[in-house]
């Protein structure tokens, strides 16, 4: 979405628009980053950082 916003070139929908994020995953996003940061596909699939 950012590429389209920056360049004006139409982009396909992001993978994240087609999935549901669990309340537990959303709760892991720091308060200051909520509604600002993206959750990557790796994290959304349940993988934990090493």
Characterize this entry briefly.
With 50 residues, the protein is mainly alpha-helical. It is built from 3 helices and no strands. The protein is globular, with a radius of gyration of 13 Å.
Q: What class would the helix/strand composition place it in?
A: mainly alpha
Question: Distance between termini?
Answer: 28 Å
% residues in beta strands = under 5%
Helix run count: 3
Q: For the CA atoms, what is the radius of gyration?
A: 13 Å
Please summarize the sheet with the most strands. none
- Tell me the number of structural domains: 1
Uncertain ranges = none
Q: Secondary-structure element order, as H and E? A: HHH
Strand tally is: 0
User: What do the pLDDT scores average to?
Assistant: 86
Task: Note down, in words, how this protein is organized.
With 50 residues, the protein is an all-alpha fold. It has one domain. The chain contains 3 helices and no strands. The longest helix has 6 residues. The relative contact order is 0.15. The mean pLDDT is 86.
């Amino acid at each position: 979405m950012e590429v389209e916003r920056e360049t004006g070139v139409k982009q396909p929908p992001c993978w994240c628009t087609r999935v549901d994020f669990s309340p537990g995953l959303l709760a892991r996003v720091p308060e200051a980053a909520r509604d600002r940061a993206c959750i990557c596909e790796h994290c959304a699939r349940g993988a934990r950082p090493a």
